């Protein structure tokens, strides 16, 4: 039996009245602390939350993962607490319902993981990383052209390439 959720069939305007005010603020950005590393299962859960782009409840997530995972309330709550501890979500209570609000965007995580991989596997050298991609056959001519255009546009337009 699916949970009866008061916001399940609402439009966004009426949905907002159920969201704690602090969850409505923008997330992510340079002010963030270092994020923890997500496990594969945590990443799958976060990708779903990022895709929804609104604060979510345990019951909403259980409805989404009900058929594929068969998770119970306690399992979902434990995973969400771990993700909170890693800096990706914040929990806000409205009435008797906990809402899980996005604190770190997918782009924030991608940037951090990209820097981490380059630092740990390639001695901090982007050139060595790109060379490894090229030598492994992972980069197509189209990829190279796309990167060249990106660099030209970023540098040519005063973009901040770091």
Q: Can you walk through the features of this model?
A:
The protein is mostly helical and 162 residues long. The chain has two domains: 12-105, Arc Repressor Mutant, subunit A; 107-156, Orthogonal Bundle (Penicillinase repressor fold). Helices cover 53% and strands 7% of the residues. The protein contains seven helices and two strands, in the order ααααββααα. It has helices at residues 12-16, 40-52, 58-69, 73-85, 106-122, 126-135, 141-156, and strands spanning 89-94, 97-102. A two-stranded antiparallel ribbon has the order 1-2. A hairpin with a 2-residue loop joins β1 (89-94) and β2. α3 crosses α4 (73-85). The longest helix has 17 residues, at 106-122. It is elongated. The protein starts with 11 loop residues before the first helix and ends in a 6-residue tail after the last helix. The model is unreliable at 1-17 and 26-31 (pLDDT under 50).
Key traits:
162 residues, mainly alpha, Arc Repressor Mutant, subunit A, Penicillinase repressor fold, 2 domains, two-stranded antiparallel ribbon, 7 helices, elongated, disordered N terminus
